[in-house]
């Protein structure tokens, strides 16, 4: 069974391609089941990872070429992008690079924000979904568990996450360039997930004059808003109240835009040329990209924040080197485990044969005891019979008429039974 990683990320594909292959919310579970239906024969084990910056398939397969072709066809169908065009943005990792890749992803070394912690939780979620779907077999289960262990070691023994600039912090810096003092601004946050909560913590540290959280489930939005001294509203209220906000941050699991070009145009007219700063952290996008062309609208996507979040990378190069060393050790350990797993069928067969011999000889000893023979004689006979049957193959090899076969058997016997290599032949 070979491990194989297949996907795209912020380095290999533009946002316009990534959002076609994003599986937010329940779509991840639904598409994992669809993927399992397509690949169950070519790749018995599958996991699907989907974040704002990446979509990846992790497969355990006896036939990597067939699995690769079927996975590409599935991705092309889902994205409605021709396979030939999609291939320009996809990366493919065979073993051992596939193992190294997932370890680097889990440790935050492959993220837009170096060392960011959210990806580890997203990988854990992907593993849970695969487990519940029945597609997380022995190989992928152990792969993910080792990835989580390596990521924990990287984060606790290096400073890979130190000085990192998150998406939220980068957004605050951009907003300050437009408005200066953010304490005089009003802010709207659309969604109630982890990323929105992270943005709330950063933006609310600037003490804005008003904070509102809009969410499909108002009660969940209200719980989050109260934590930061804000209010909640339903998504249906956006058209009437959008013009009131200077800063808008959106990150939902919607497959369609939440804010279209027309709604932003209407809001800007009512704002009378006061600028509106918008951050769209969702993939697929929550805000139509044409909004960026409007006067007085400053729209930033996930990719637009890339330059700012790379700040501080130079200061962490030592930590990166240390992290890569930890990852390489993790890769070696995993591959050793996998090589051991390949001998499991042989070990089971050997164990089964030994148990059969043991059972036969014990039954024979019990019959001798029932006939009244002395226990000492029965035990000696049992030990002799077991040793003779267990060593029958070794004796046969050492007595082979073929000299080469005898030499090979002698080498194996000395190694398995840890005999002195210089022991004189009898």
Set down the secondary structure blueprint.
Blueprint: E1 2-9, H1 15-18, H2 26-39, E2 45-50, E3 54-61, H3 64-79, H4 83-86, E4 91-94, H5 97-106, H6 118-133, H7 138-157, H8 167-179, E5 186-190, H9 194-203, E6 210-215, H10 218-227, E7 231-234, H11 238-241, E8 247-250, H12 261-271, E9 276-280, E10 297-301, H13 306-309, H14 317-341, H15 344-370, H16 375-390, H17 392-398, H18 403-416
| Overall 3D form | elongated
Secondary structure class reads alpha/beta
Number of domains: 3
Main β-sheet: number of strands, strand sense, barrel status? 6 strands, parallel
CATH class of the largest domain: Alpha Beta
Which architecture of the largest domain does the CATH hierarchy give at level 2? 2-Layer Sandwich
Strand and helix order: EHHEEHHEHHHHEHEHEHEHEEHHHHHH
- Strand-residue proportion: 5-15%
The first-to-last residue Cα distance is 45 Å
Characteristic terms for this protein:
426 residues; alpha/beta; Rossmann fold; six-stranded parallel β-sheet
Give a brief rundown of this model.
This protein is α/β, with parallel strands linked by helices. 53% of the residues lie in helices and 13% in strands.
Describe this structure in words.
- By secondary structure, the chain is of the alpha/beta class.
- The chain folds into 3 domains: 2-163 and 314-341, Glutamyl-tRNA reductase, N-terminal domain (Beta Polymerase, domain 2), CATH 3.30.460; 167-309, NAD(P)-binding Rossmann-like Domain (Rossmann fold); 344-416, no CATH class.
- Helices cover 53% and strands 13% of the residues.
- The chain is built from 18 helices and 10 strands.
- Strands 7-6-5-8-9-10 form a 6-stranded parallel beta sheet, with helices on one face. The chain has a 4-stranded antiparallel beta sheet with strand order 2-3-1-4, with helices on both faces.
- Helix 5 packs across helix 7 and helix 15 (344-370) packs antiparallel against helix 16 (375-390).
- The chain starts with a strand and ends in a 10-residue tail after the last helix.
């Amino acid at each position: 069974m070979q491990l194989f990683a297949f996907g795209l990320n912020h380095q290999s594909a533009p946002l316009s391609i990534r959002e076609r292959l994003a599986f937010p919310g329940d779509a991840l579970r639904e598409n994992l089941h669809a993927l399992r239906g397509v690949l169950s024969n070519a790749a018995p084990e599958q996991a699907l990872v989907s974040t704002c910056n990446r979509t990846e398939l992790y497969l355990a397969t006896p036939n990597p070429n067939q699995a690769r072709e079927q996975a590409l066809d599935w991705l092309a169908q889902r994205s409605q992008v021709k396979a030939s065009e999609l291939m320009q943005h996809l990366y493919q990792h065979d073993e051992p690079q596939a193992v190294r890749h997932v370890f680097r992803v889990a440790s935050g070394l492959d993220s837009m924000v170096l060392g960011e912690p959210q990806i580890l939780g997203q990988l854990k979620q992907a593993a849970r979904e695969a487990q519940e779907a029945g597609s997380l077999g022995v190989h992928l289960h152990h792969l993910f568990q080792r990835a989580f262990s390596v990521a924990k070691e990287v984060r606790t023994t290096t400073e890979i996450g130190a000085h990192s600039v998150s998406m939220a912090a980068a957004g605050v810096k951009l907003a300050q360039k437009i408005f200066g003092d953010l304490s005089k601004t009003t802010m709207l946050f659309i969604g109630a997930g982890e990323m929105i909560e992270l943005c709330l913590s950063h933006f609310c540290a600037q003490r804005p004059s008003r904070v509102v959280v809009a969410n499909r489930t108002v009660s969940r939005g209200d719980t989050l808003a109260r934590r930061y001294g804000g209010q909640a509203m339903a998504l249906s209220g956006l058209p009437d109240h959008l013009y009131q906000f200077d800063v808008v941050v959106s990150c939902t699991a919607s497959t369609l835009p939440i804010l279209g070009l027309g709604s932003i145009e209407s809001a800007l007219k009512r704002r009378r040329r006061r600028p509106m700063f918008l951050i769209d952290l969702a993939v697929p996008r929550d805000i139509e990209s044409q909004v960026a062309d409007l006067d007085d609208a400053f729209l930033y996507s996930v990719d637009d924040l890339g330059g700012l979040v790379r700040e501080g990378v130079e200061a962490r190069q030592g930590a990166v080197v240390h992290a890569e060393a930890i990852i390489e050790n993790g890769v070696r350990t995993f591959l050793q485990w996998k090589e051991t797993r390949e001998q499991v069928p042989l070990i089971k067969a050997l164990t089964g044969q030994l148990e059969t011999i043991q059972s036969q000889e014990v039954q024979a000893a019990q019959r001798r005891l029932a006939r009244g023979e002395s226990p000492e004689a029965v035990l000696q006979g049992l030990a002799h019979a077991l040793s003779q049957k267990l060593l029958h193959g070794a004796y046969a090899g050492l007595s082979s008429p073929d000299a080469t076969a005898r030499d090979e058997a002698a080498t194996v016997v000395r190694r398995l039974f840890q005999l002195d290599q210089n022991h004189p032949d009898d």
